[in-house]
Amino acid sequence: MAEITAAQGIAATLATDERRRRDPPGNPYGRATAEADLAVPDIDEVRVEASVLGIPAEELTPEVVVAIRKLMEEAETLRRELAATRRHESHLGKLADNHSYLPLYNRRAFLREMSKALVRSEHARVNCTFLYLHLANLQEIRKVHGRAAGDQAMVHAAWILRNDLRDSDLLGSMDGYDFVILLMLTGGQVAEDKARGLVEAVESQPFRWLETHIPLRMKCGLHQFSAGETVDQVIDAAESALRRNELRR
Predict the structure, then answer these.
(1) H or E element: which one contains 179?
(2) Cα–Cα distance between 103 and 41 in angstroms, integer?
């Protein structure tokens, strides 16, 4: 009878195990199932893992190879499950931050991000400007055309604003008829010009409801961050500017 060496036994074990994975019992298509859709560690990977585990090469029998391979595959499965869990948690976090039907941050998420930005801008001594925008005729739209039309008007305005902002800027809702924007690294005349441009963009693009084109009217107030201000102080200042209608044409 021919003598089988340890190396030959390991190779045979690897080959048999790989065939079983490729053509599992009960699978008429001869393809690996989703559960077995993992890369099979080759003998070099097994040897490296054995070295890490402190297993001498002379003790690397076929049985040990099988055990190490299973350990490696279980570790890979756990790694994939952990990655999937983290992706799911990230997705849930985004859902929790998003407005229920508008493409922007909800109030809670916006105020959180604004608070972070206020601290960063103060430390870096850079300009940031807060805009408070109000759809002045939304109540009228809801009264004449219904609540659904009012919601659609908000969606229409939100997309116009979003498409006219940079990725670094923040856009959110303060509930009701109001939008809030944080213009990062922007102040002075540049911020005022941007605010006017946003108002003009919304007012120049009526939204269509059934067979009617309905124009929107928007008011805006702004306030540039000052050192030592709180989030509430910034919002109050912008609301005051909105009431004075400083940027209304």
Answers:
(1) strand 178-183
(2) 45
Reported confidence tier of residue 83, pLDDT bands at 50, 70, 90: confident
Could you read off the pLDDT of 139-152 as tens digits, one per residue? 999 999 999 999 99
Residue from 150, 152, 176 nearest 103 by CA: 152
Q: How many residues comprise the chain? A: 249
Q: Does the pLDDT at position 247 exceed 80?
A: no
- Kindly report the number of other CB atoms within 10 A of residue 9's CB atom: 14
**Residues 217/140, Cβ–Cβ less than 8 Å:** no
Return the ∠ at Cα 106 (arms to 100 and 111), rounded to 5°: 170
Structure tokens at 184: 């990062």
Tokens at 96, concatenated: 């929790």
**Calpha distance 235→178 (Å, rounded):** 12
Tell me which residue of 88, 57, 61 sits closest to 4, measured CA to CA: 61
Say yes or no to pLDDT of 121 above 90. Answer: no
